[in-house]
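With this grant's support, we have settled on a layout for protein records. An illustrative entry appears below exactly as we store it:
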Amino acid sequence: MTDGDARIDDVEVNLDIHLAHSARMYDYYLGGTTNFPADREAAGRALAVFPYAPTAARANRAFMRRSTRLLAEAGVRQFLDIGTGIPTSPNLHEIAQSVAPDAKVVYADNDPIVLLHAQALLRGTEEGVTAYVQADVREPGDLLDAARSILDFSRPIALSMNALLHFVPSDAHRITEGLKAQLPSGSALVISHVTPDFAPEETARLIQVYTAAGTPVAACTRDEVARFFTGWDIMEPGVVATPRWHPELAHDTEQITDAEASCYGAVAIRP
């Protein structure tokens, strides 16, 4: 193996540690340790033009926790989280299974760094199921085939794509519609997406940094984010900045402005 390679179950994984990686940059924003010099250098350039990045990352994680808890308390027992990222506790399955110990959670990601940490994502309750599949959201059919071996697609499923779709800008709507079409009535769609609406100049410069690092990003306006939910019933309070989505459910007291979050979040239910 070369520097930056690792093996999991006899599968060689090339981490490309000399290249900045969006998942490792996000880990850095959250104060994690699964990042390398290239990631920290790129993150430093991002912070220079968008100093809100760590706050935005925390706001996004908090939105994930609140939306997961609300859906679990509403009776959803199956969760499919695409674009999982590097584990940061509490993870989605910890929230869901704290409410419903028998909940089934499937994580899906195609990033090799996430594969390395998949074992940390599999420590769920004895009553429930927690699984990880290596799959690419740009191939939604293959991803769903893998998920079908664990989840019952005749019963409601909460599909989460948090801070994911802005990394596949040319395919985002095709991907979303393809996934939505396979989910039964009563299923939920959870999306958070970066937006230029609150800090347009800083967001534009941030996108330039990510693009220069080899990761194309596109920000969406509120109306553009709302399009992802077409045909489904958007829950109150609608498409809002992530800190404004049911803040009464938050367990922390951090006050985050819309500009600091620069990300919309929403949840919709399939009729």
